[in-house]
Design goal:
heterodimer; A: alpha/beta; Rossmann fold; globular; B: alpha/beta; Spore Coat Polysaccharide Biosynthesis Protein SpsA, Chain A; 2 domains; nine-stranded mixed beta sheet
Chain lengths: 121, 404
């Protein structure tokens, strides 16, 4: 069962993502901030990270850089309420992005694509 | 081995090699040498560096301009024999020298660039020293700059090799010294690779080498001294496309396994001031004319190359006027997939005709892109290209099927 780490400082988003993604068969763990995120990834070894861009104390795009520099191939999906982040070059290091919504169809589709992505090792 | 070598400092090893390939660049190479020299001293002063000019035996004083430019880093000059031209031949001499010097990192910057900065050297070399295998720069580009990259090279390479490298044939790059060995061992060393095809050839080989690839943001556009993007279009188009198709045959077992694509790591995001792109004017009416002329000249060839659904679609596109012109991306992806497959299966002597027949279709695709994106910002046009890449990826199973 693929393990997904949801990083978001809004509790209702963590709950929503968690419940809906568990329903379709994923194991879900959550983090409420970017604090010790790399350590969490090291310990939990998620198969994919859903990362909020704008958190109170953390910039998701900076966290994305940290993740990508250490975990070259770990899929990261950016989750955001606004699409202005696309002006920031750093966003191209993400596998996908989704606009936050109560309908998680797009997020589930992107998660499935990211987990299906196959490159020869 | 290079036909001719001047190594006045008797350099026999180096940590970093900065290479400047050239042909008749006496006027501009001095500036590039000066900036590269500064970049090496400012950012890698603790390492052993050398600047190498890989030249096509220029007779305009390129070598003298290279050696006389201000700077402190030791220099070396390599040359092909008289009459032997092509950036690929220059880089082959470089690969052999890199192997001999056992260099850890190699940076290549073209000799005709007007706005090189020391930071470019840092952004191309530092990721290599941190463990990356190959670095492609990301320059700031206008939405209509490098349309061959946007409409063919990027979507095709991305769906084949699974990495999103946005400017894979920009001409400058960084690579791990060990990769020089891989380049020298490549079974594909055609006339196209010896010339315009070498940039895409290197990136293609790097992508299939399984070494980590990253992109480095350079903070501005790349400005060539003199560059008319359409001056060598026919030759450039043939050489780049044939190189991609030739390598598809070599790496078929690799690309058939790839599904969807992944991003690369990104370096250089700490650039604070970002320059704006240089405006590019496009003559839509001329593109349309060339599409129509090419249609008349080559449409008899297409039924032998393309799937039966493509030709009626091309007839439909041909019938559209300039005002409503549109070239669906799904049709375009199928055209390139069918063309690659036909290229693979046909005699080498027929391939030139096939490639020639694709040029007007490419110009039609560019026209369609221009019309769709004329009111879009750079950002929106980039998103449009990303969506086109997804269409290529979605249609890849078709390529795998017809290839076999």
């Amino acid at each position: 069962m693929p393990k997904i780490l949801v990083v978001d400082d809004e509790e209702h988003i963590r709950l929503l993502y968690s419940e809906e993604l568990k329903e379709v068969g994923y194991e879900v763990i959550t983090a409420e901030s970017g604090y010790r995120l790399l350590e969490t990834i090291e310990e939990e070894k998620p198969d994919l990270v859903v990362l909020d861009i704008k958190m109170v104390d953390y910039n998701g795009l900076d966290l994305l850089q940290d993740i990508r520099n250490r975990y070259y191939d770990l899929p990261v999906i950016l989750s955001t309420a606004y699409d202005t982040f696309k002006e920031d070059m750093k966003s191209i290091a993400a596998d996908f992005y989704v606009v936050k919504s109560f309908d998680l169809t797009e997020l589930k589709k992107k998660i499935a694509m990211a987990l299906e992505t196959r490159l020869p090792t | 081995m290079a036909f001719y070598e001047e190594n006045p400092h008797k350099i026999d090893s180096a940590d970093i090699v900065a290479a400047i390939p050239s042909f008749s660049e006496a006027e501009g190479i001095g500036y590039v040498v000066e900036q590269v020299d500064r970049g090496l001293r400012e950012h890698f002063g603790h390492l052993k560096s050398v600047i190498i000019n890989c030249d096509n035996h220029s007779s305009d004083g390129t070598k003298e301009a290279f050696f006389s430019a201000p700077g402190q880093v030791p220099r070396m000059y390599l040359s092909t024999p008289p009459g032997v031209r092509g950036k690929g031949n220059n880089l082959r001499n470089l690969f052999e020298k890199v192997r001999e010097l056992r260099a850890e990192a190699v940076v290549v910057i073209e000799a005709d660039v007007k706005n090189v900065q020391p930071l470019w050297v840092k952004n191309l070399a530092e990721p290599i020293l941190k463990g990356v295998g190959y670095v492609c720069p990301l320059y700031v580009r206008h939405k209509y700059e490098a349309t061959m990259t946007s409409s063919i090279i990027y979507p095709l390479l991305r769906c084949l090799y699974g990495r999103r490298v946005r400017q894979p044939n920009v001409g400058d790059f960084g690579f791990k010294g060990k990769l020089a060995e891989v380049f020298l061992d490549s079974p594909v060393w055609t006339e196209a690779v010896q010339n315009f095809g070498v940039d895409i050839w290197m990136t293609n080989i790097a992508l299939s080498s399984r070494m980590p690839v990253c992109q480095s943001f350079m903070g501005g556009p790349k400005v060539h001294r003199v560059k008319d993007p359409y001056a060598h279009l026919n030759v450039l188009f043939q050489q780049v496309l044939s190189t991609i198709f030739d390598l598809m045959m070599v790496y078929a077992d690799f690309w058939k396994q790839v599904k969807w694509s992944k991003p690369t790591a990104l370096f250089g995001t700490d650039v604070h001031e970002v320059d704006t792109p240089i405006p590019v004017e496009v003559n839509a009416a001329r593109l349309h004319e060339r599409f129509l002329e090419g249609y008349d000249e080559h449409s008899a060839t297409w039924p032998r190359i393309f799937d039966q659904t493509v030709v009626p679609k091309l007839q439909e596109i041909h019938g559209m006027g300039l005002q409503h012109f549109s070239f669906p991306t799904q049709t375009w992806a199928k055209i390139l997939f069918d063309a690659a497959t036909a290229y693979h299966k046909m005699n080498a002597s027929e391939r030139g005709t096939l490639l020639d027949s694709l040029l007007p279709l490419y110009l039609g695709k560019v026209l369609s892109f221009v019309k769709k994106t004329e009111r879009m910002s750079l950002q929106q046009a980039e998103e449009y290209i990303e969506n086109e890449c997804t269409i290529f990826e979605e249609n890849k199973p078709y390529l795998v099927k017809v290839w076999e």
